[in-house]
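Support case: zinc ion complex. Customer-provided input:
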Amino acid sequence: MNLAAGLKRLMLGPEEKPIPNLNRNDRCWCNSGKKYKACHQATDDRKRAAQRAASAKQQGGSLKRGF
Ligand SMILES: [Zn+2]
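Agent response - structure generated as follows:
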């Protein structure tokens, strides 16, 4: 029994896949044959930012750094 993993899945949802950490010039994970920077990097960056914002909210929004 792994309660922590179960909770994590509940919070993230079953369809949420981990975002791969690729170099800009690597081939994208989606097998398009394009470089990551020309393909999914912008999308992934936005997802990462959204996830970060969501987790910051869950911590009470105490993460206020003037960007
Ligand atoms: Zn891609």
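Residues 28, 30, 32, 39-40 surround zinc ion (CB under 6 Å).

Case will auto-close in a few days if no follow-up is received.
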